[in-house]
Write a structure and sequence with these properties.
The chain has seven helices and four strands, in the order E-H-E-E-E-H-H-H-H-H-H. It has 194 residues and is an alpha+beta fold. The C terminus is likely disordered.
């Protein structure tokens, strides 16, 4: 029996509604039981390029109430334009990588000045990417070989490789849809204390 799991990232709000409509037919990602998933509210964050609060995901609950066979855990399905658990969007992260590709500093890039994040937050986001480089490069290598690069900066090499695998205006979003995992792996708690 093939079990298809619910995706962690979807493209738009309509797909979030479809996930909820089909939740009962899908297995829980933890206990693999079907028929136990219920909607458990929306996840709110900031919309792209604005300070307005918008829906960025949906929580689902594997019901263990009233003798149901579920595991009782919740999980989230997020919009692919949002970085997992972060205020920053994928366009902000791509602007950061694009600034490095062009040889600009984070401070000098005009697009990063208007993204709504402080310079310190941008440097912390950069540090998280550096920490995740081995996993990211390994995943990209499974798709295709990296392009030749004159730069010794590993983030510039990552940006070039991302652009080769996912050509377009938002390769970070494409990454999250393709691999169904956050481009910024979640084990960065020790970096947030700085």
């Amino acid at each position: 029996m093939v079990t298809t799991c619910i995706r962690k990232f979807v493209q738009c709000r309509a797909e979030l509604d479809t996930v909820l409509a089909n939740a009962k037919a899908q297995p829980c990602p933890y206990c693999k039981r079907r028929g136990t998933l219920n909607g458990h509210g929306f996840v709110y964050g900031y919309g792209p390029g604005s300070a307005a609060v918008a829906v960025t995901g949906r929580r689902l609950y594997c019901s263990s109430r009233r003798k149901r066979p579920g595991c009782g855990r919740t999980f989230m399905v997020a919009l692919a334009r949002q970085l997992w658990g972060r205020v920053a969007t994928t366009m902000t992260l791509w602007a950061l990588l694009n600034a490095l590709l062009k040889g600009q500093t984070l401070y000098a890039n005009e697009r990063l000045k208007t993204c709504g994040l402080s310079l310190r937050s941008l440097y912390r986001l950069r540090a998280r990417l550096v920490f995740a480089l081995p996993q990211l490069r390994t995943s990209l290598l499974a798709c295709c070989a990296p392009p030749p690069s004159d730069s010794a900066d590993p983030l510039v090499q990552l940006a070039m490789h991302l652009l080769r695998v996912f050509p377009g205006d938002d390769p970070v979003r494409s990454w999250q849809m393709q691999f169904q995992t956050s481009i910024e792996f979640r084990s960065f708690r020790h970096l947030d204390s700085s």
